[in-house]
Amino acid sequence: MPNVKATTVSSDDPQTYEDTHVHAVYDEIAPHFSSTRYKPWPIIATFLSSLPTGWVGVDLGTGNGKYLPLPSDRPGSVWTVGLDRSRNLLDIARQAGGAEREVVWGDVLDRPWRAGAFDYAISIATIHHLATPARRKAAVKRLLESISPSHGRALIYVWAIEQDDLSKRNIPVDSSEDKLEQRDEIHIGQDVFVPWVLAQSAQSKPKPKTLRKKGLDETSAKDEEDTTYAKRSQSAPKVYDRYYHMFAKGELTELVSDGAKEMGLHVGSPSDTTHNQEGIDTFGVQVVQDGWERSNYYVELCRWKL
Q: Is there a contact between 101 and 36 (Cβ–Cβ < 8 Å)?
């Protein structure tokens, strides 16, 4: 397995950087990638199971759509629309769970719907593919804008620098004492390339009967069959480098807080907020929970209005 490599993002054109190191890669690896992404993570499944019947939401960066059929204990009780930049993954998501799903080709930085259109939103393993802090913050703001300002709920997941023992990834970071202290104080993550190894498709051996039609006798046909199959079997797998920003402890929650404040939202519980002058609504967002799970950081949010 190739190693994860540290990288430096060019700030001149982050969109082109993402086009090359994220979007083009996922379109190439879509079927193989999808085959490895089928089991919902527990906290996400619990979140979707907790939603009231009849709610409509959006999965920003839906990938192969594995969360669109949930909750599995109440199928069809909520409806999740999937958005993604990869057309090839969306083709798979459209039939997630064996039923027709509603999917949209788009970017998490766009505004393809009116503000407050959804009751809930999830963004799972997506924001870490955005190449600058400003773009990551903008994605958080688009997510908060998309949900109801009075009751909208949201859940965000990103990959963490701290990987557990089951992870195959070893994240290269500057482990000097000064750098570690700085990382903890100002919550700086690490930009990396994470390789995806795409094995060449195993192709079945050509049948001797087919080869004999080419004018080869049975022995020659068998020799050509073995030679052709050996060449195919020995072809080297292709390795794609995918860009990730691996989040540091506290970085995701801080990003959400900064984005919310830029939107003019109060950050905290409504019970801890002093209401403004009478007749003027106060809007805010509360961090319901945040933490680390299986090599990921997550934050659950709830919007409110007074």
A: no
**What type of residue sits at position 64?**
N
Contact residues for 28 (Cβ-Cβ < 8 A; gap 6+):
198, 240
* Tokens coding 214: 């080419």
From the list 206, 196, 198, the residue with the least C-alpha distance to 231 is: 206
Using CA atoms of 161, 299, 45, 241 in order, give the dihedral in degrees to the nearest 10: -30
Angle subtended at Cα 71 by Cα 89 and Cα 105, rounded to the nearest 5 degrees:
25
- Strands (DSSP E) found in the chain: 5-6, 56-60, 79-84, 103-105, 120-124, 153-159, 190-198, 238-246, 266-267, 283-293, 296-305
H helices present in 154-202, as ranges? 177-186
Question: What is d(CA 228, CA 220) in angstroms, rounded to the nearest whole number?
Answer: 12
What torsion, rounded to 10 degrees, do the Cα atoms 16, 110, 156, 269 define? Answer: 140
Angle at 292 between CA 286 and CA 295, to 5 degrees: 140
Comparing C-alpha atoms, which of 245, 246, 256 is closest to residue 300?
A: 256
The pTM for the full model equals 0.86
**Exposure of 141 by Cβ count < 10 A (0-12 exposed, 13-18 middle, 19+ buried)?**
middle
112-161 pLDDT, tens digit per residue, is: 999 999 999 999 999 999 999 999 999 999 999 999 999 999 999 999 99
Neighbours of 11 (CB within 10 A): 11
Q: Please give the DSSP secondary-structure letter assigned to residue 132.
A: S
Count of residues making up the chain: 306
